[in-house]
Amino acid sequence: MFKIFKYLKKSAGIILVIVLLLFLQAYCDLSLPDYTSKIVNVGIQQNGIEDAVADTIRGETMDKLFIFMDEDATNLVKENYTLENDMWSLNKVNKETREQLNTVFGKPMLMVYGLTSDSDQSKEILAQMKLPEGTDPFAVFSQMPKEQMDKVMEGMSEQLDKMPESIITQSSINFVKTEYQAQGIDMDSMQTNYILKSGLVMLAFALTIMIAAVLVTFLSCRVAASLSRDLREKVFEKVISFSNAEFDKFSTASLITRSTNDIQQVQLLMTMLFRIVLYAPILGIGGVIHALGTNKSMAWIIAVAVGAILVVVGILFSVAMPKFQSLQKLIDRLNLVSREILQGVPVIRAFSTEKHEEDRFETANHNLMKTNLFVNRCMTFMMPLMMFIMNGITVLIVWKGAAGIDNGNMQVGDLMAFIQYTMMIIMSFLMLTMLSIMLPRASVSASRINEVLATEVILHDPKDPKKADRSKKGLVEFKNVSFTYPEAEESVLSNLSFSAKPGQTTAVIGSTGCGKSTLVNLIPRFFDVTEGQILVDGVDVREMSQHELHDKIGYVPQKGVLFSGTIATNLRYGKEDATDEEVAKAAEIAQAYDFIQEKDEKFDSPIAQGGTNVSGGQKQRLSIARAIAKEPEIYIFDDSFSALDYKTDVALRGALKRETKDATTIIVAQRISTILHAEQIIVLDEGKVAGIGTHQELLKNCDVYYQIAASQLSKEELSNE
Q1: How far is CA 616 from the centre of its chain?
Q2: Are 340 and 383 members of one domain?
Q3: Does residue 435 share a domain with residue 520?
Q4: Using 50, 70 and 90 to split pLDDT, how confident is the model at 166?
Q5: Pairing assessment for the beta strands 493-500 and 476-483 based on DSSP bridges
Q6: How many secondary structure helices (H) and strands (E) does the chain include?
Q7: Residue 461 scores a pLDDT above 80
Q8: Does the CA dihedral 134-138-143-144 come out positive or negative?
Q9: How many domains does the chain have?
Q10: For residue 569, what are the domain limits?
Q11: Residues 610 and 674 in one domain
Q12: pLDDT, tens digit, 9 for 90 and up, residues 94-134
């Protein structure tokens, strides 16, 4: 899988932008629960008062607070507050200083609030002081000797230290609220402004999240699509460079699946990868940090949630993984069966084997269906289990958090924030779980793609290709050539030596399976010889660039191949700049002109994929015309005349002889009539040369050739010859 990542180098800049956008989105996502907590705690419960640091405090109130502060605390307050018209106003302070002031004001405000409120606690404190009715307790405290006041403060501090921090905070907030009310400040307006301000900030964060998510999705799809495009190009280029030996390793159906479905799986994974794999860890780690910052006492709940998710994922992964590995193979099998059936429909009907082929298809289709159902069922189980875990964890947090709120150790807003952070953590694991479902299949697909890309091509162009000897233009020489197919035990061709000269026709004949097609396939380097040399224009074909070699050859395979387009585009396939006159001439030589003219659109008549809208003979003639239009130095006809009737065969060869008088023509044939007038006939028998000569010479000197001729010609024809 990781080998595929190297093709992402071109998109490195876009990936960096994606990562930055994901960090921005995660920051905004993680900020929202905090603002929710503040709206509940500060906006609703505290009337918009954030902490104990009041913006303004009346002089008399500040004097009461100073009574319960030590010298350092008093100095800190005086440094950060300015007294004007009996009103202390807060100077501009940084976050650190504000936190210090909040700590300094906490206990003094609690004491002042406790002594001035009408609560039962206040009355109890005053009763313990045994002051006469109507006595100002603050005046008493201010007149106390320092030693006595220190003892009182020490005793009060011990009592206050036992109180939960939330009670001290809440009392401080109530004190500030009372102070603001005494100053005539509208608390309702302050509360509304705080909630609106926080709400607008949350709305801005939500908008940022939306924009970032859209951009990340857009860029991720772009990167994934670019990767998919590059992989298809690489696979196509690789397959095009394959020799027949490499093609034998992969079926056509498998190569099609690897180029389409497999690459599609990788593309889908890459889209999710940037959106999930990169985002989930950021969100999960951030969620843990913020959750612990909210309340550390419930950290064990997060551990329980993560552990439960890992157990579920581990079980599902172990069960589903083997099925994912076999899924793509089953798709290959279905494609293979479908392709074979569709290509062989006429044969299937002719032999009445429809039922057998239906059973084959049904078996492949059923196996794929079963595997898909199993995988989908695993995913079906996963989502309800994850929702059960999420809901169970929420109930557990509420149960534990309610006890904390009741004890004064936690606020309602903090509980809500903790739930949200925990859900974020679970969601991050859930996202990774979804990826774990996709990853095995995509990993298998990536391995299959890499298998094609990593296939070592046998045929390579030389580093310093040699140029052809123009004095030997068109000359083809076999020097002690032997060939064995890869992983085969016996040689197909053994020690072949002959020359095919320009202006002459060299024919190759022999029994079925004697190596005729193999011989001509060695010339354009569809395979490399095992031993010996093949020279074209005086240069070993292995020392010549394949492009230059193929430019010299006009190849017509045994089975005609046409491409979707028009007749004209097919004929110009080897020479794009061929004129209309050259195309028409090639068609005339190939005996294809007449049937082309009978069509409504003539040379612009469409050709269906594979040439299915023309007959076998027409397809073969068009294939021959395509080679002629190229005007090569060497013509190779691999049993290309077998689909033609005798009359057309004779006419075509006559016209071809006149046209190719300066070129080298090599013909593989089954019919003696096709090669009667060849200047050189090579007779193959079990991969060896049984005879070389003209028709008449071989009849006299080669028993193998005579047997072939006797099987096709009458006694009169043999004697006449």
Answers
A1: 43
A2: yes
A3: no
A4: low
A5: antiparallel
A6: 28, 15
A7: no
A8: positive
A9: 3
A10: 558-631
A11: no
A12: 888 988 888 888 888 877 777 776 655 555 555 555 555 65
